[in-house]
Amino acid sequence: MTQRSLRMFIIFIMISSAACAHQPITLFCHGIVDTSKQADRYTNGLQEPKKSFDFPDAAIPEGYNLNNLIFTACNFFGKPVNRNAMYMGHDQDIVTLEQQIKPDINYILYGVSRGGFAAITYLAEKNPENIQALIIDSAPANIISAVDEFQHAIGYKFAEDKKTQEYVFNYLFPAYVINSKPSVENIANITNKNLPVFIVHAKTDTRVHIRSAWQLYVAFLQAGFTSVYLIELDQGKHAYYMQGPDSEKYLQALHSFYKKHNFNYDSTFATIDNLEIFQPDIDDILKKITADKHDMQKNYEQQKSYNGIILSCLTIVTAAILIAQRNL
Questions:
Q1: Is 199 in contact with 217 (CB distance < 8 Å)?
Q2: Residue 102 in contact with residue 127, Cβ under 8 Å?
């Protein structure tokens, strides 16, 4: 190697080292019924350096009990379900997330589903100064709303008020702490309003409805955040957006986001110069939320009516059978 080549090599190493020093660590926060290995599905979106970790619900339960049996059975299919440690983005989830973060190192928080919910809650409760960006993939705006959405879907309301819905949720997930504040309400408590926020959600996500992304986007804007982006994918399965038909749109938006905010990026995907296309007017999103509420109520009334028809038919059939037996 010539002296000139050696100098060029040294300069390259110095530039690369400087770039790595500037780049925050991407901390991946996985969803429930999964582990830190979920990060493997996001390889094209996670820039080096990166780190993933396990939330408490990924740990094997202790002792021989029903919870351990459920965990063993579900884990056989690669889906760990430790109900006694499902804090659903609160309590020990926040403690675990905080333990991953060193105060003298900068981070990008990348949260999927519950992981995104936990990231928002952590930011609101702790307000660390070393978080450089927040990426939220298919995260619920309010964990408890799943109960009300289920009621609307089946056309029967067994828990009318929010408090009752919370107790139902706590019955399903006993580690969830009653009176925990939903992430959508916590956003206003995050003090760094210049934090870049990237929200991505698929319209076809059946586990967490896209209404959550709309609600989060509105909450960030109403709280005064200056760099918030909303990417709506036409298609995508929950927690598998990067394996879906809109993966390229996802990656183009994400790496263009990285580029705009001076993080490491893949030039193959960072092709969008105008990210304002992912900053819809708040009034337009509020209209979507209003229309969605109307559709939910309409679907509820239709399902309720359908339930009534089925019940009437069952009643008539039962009465006919009883009359027939009596006449025999």
A1: yes
A2: no
Report how far residue 229's alpha carbon sits from residue 97's, in angstroms, rounded to the nearest whole number: 24
Q: What CA–CA distance (Å, rounded) separates 258 from 256?
A: 5
The CA R_g of the chain, rounded to the nearest whole Å, is: 24
In sequence order, which ranges of the chain are alpha helices (DSSP H)?
3-22, 66-75, 92-99, 114-126, 145-154, 162-172, 183-186, 211-222, 247-260, 282-327
Conformational region of residue 82, where left means phi above 0, alpha means psi within -120 to 50, and beta covers everything else: beta
Please tell me which residue, 85 or 14, carries the higher pLDDT value. 85
Angle at 116 between CA 198 and CA 285, to 5 degrees: 50
Residue 63 has pLDDT above 90, yes or no: no
Quickly state the pLDDT bin for 2 (edges 50, 70, 90): low
- Look at residue 285 in the predicted model and tell me its pLDDT: 98
Q: Is 218 left (phi over 0), alpha (psi -120 to 50) or beta?
A: alpha
Exposure string of 44-58, with b = 16+ CB inside 10 Å and e = fewer, is: bbbbeebebbebbbb
Closest to 141 (Cα-Cα) out of 248, 220, 196? 220
Higher pLDDT, 23 or 68: 23
Dist CA 182 CA 326 (whole Å): 57
Token pair recorded at residue 70: 């459920």
Cβ–Cβ < 8 Å for 153, 91: no
For residue 254, the tally of other CB atoms under 10 A from its CB is 28
For residue 133, the cross-strand partners are 108
Helix axes 145-154, 282-327, angle to 10 degrees: 50
What's 207's DSSP letter? S
